Amino acid sequence: MTDITPLVETCSDSTLADLYAKAFERRTRQLDASLRIRLRRTRAVMVRSRPAISIGNRTIPTSVETIFEQIRPSIWKFHSQMIDIEEPASEAERQHIRQWSCDRQRAFVSPTNRPQIDSVLDALSAVLDGGREGRDYILLSRVPSLISH
Questions:
Q1: What's the pTM value of the predicted model, to 2 decimals?
Q2: Which of 73, 137, 54, 68 is nearest to 107 (CA)?
Q3: d(C-alpha 92, C-alpha 7), whole Å
Q4: Rounded to 5 degrees, what are φ and ψ at 30?
Q5: Listed residue (120, 131, 102) closest to 1, CA to CA
């Protein structure tokens, strides 16, 4: 599927909402009907993953919690991310992991601060399709506002 984000820049809000809704429907088509209904009603989803980040000849296990917020029906965007390094790491390794985190966030948000629909839906669908509820993801009824300084 081609990312619809480039189309977003030239769309009206109603057309944009239709594009996102259709993309979301395509991605969630295989999900259980009750989960699809709950997804439509929820404010946010927290996705948990445990990537191992390779730095030189070393692999560092991490735990990543990413929150995606539903800002309008079927329109999901990146909200926040927390990374926990699971073993001792040097300051250079921590800096590398911080850069990895920033790169990952950029994959979810376009330069115009609009959600990159395919990468957001890829992250959600990978967990929703393959995970068990409560282990890999949590549907959140309330998410605090993101405060930026």
A1: 0.76
A2: 68
A3: 39
A4: -85, -10
A5: 120
